[in-house]
C-alpha cells in the first residue's frame, strides 16, 4: 500500500490514533483481522472508515501500519 503522505505524517498519524480514536493500534489490528477479507488495502481502509466512523486518513494509516507489521512478522517467521 503506497502512502499518500510523507513518512513523517504517517508517523504522526499513528502516534495520535489512541487519543483520537480511543483505541490503540492492536485493537484496530484485531478489527482488521476479524473483519471481512479484502484483497486490496484500499478496500480495507474504506471498510474501516465506514464501519468505525474514522476519517480516511486515519483508516489508511492504520491499514498501512498493519501491513508493514504483518510483513515484518512474516519475514522473521
Descriptive report:
With 77 residues, the chain is mainly alpha-helical. It has one domain. It is built from four helices and no strands. Helix 3 packs across helix 4. The mean pLDDT is 91.
Write the layout of secondary structure elements.
Layout: H1 7-21, H2 25-34, H3 41-52, H4 56-75
Shape: globular
Helix-and-strand structural type: mainly alpha
Number of helices: 4
Strand content: under 5%
Question: Which blocks of ≥5 consecutive residues have pLDDT under 50?
Answer: none
Question: What attributes characterize this protein structure?
Answer:
globular; 77 residues
Brief sketch in words of this structure:
With about 80 residues, the protein is mainly alpha-helical. The chain contains four helices and no strands.
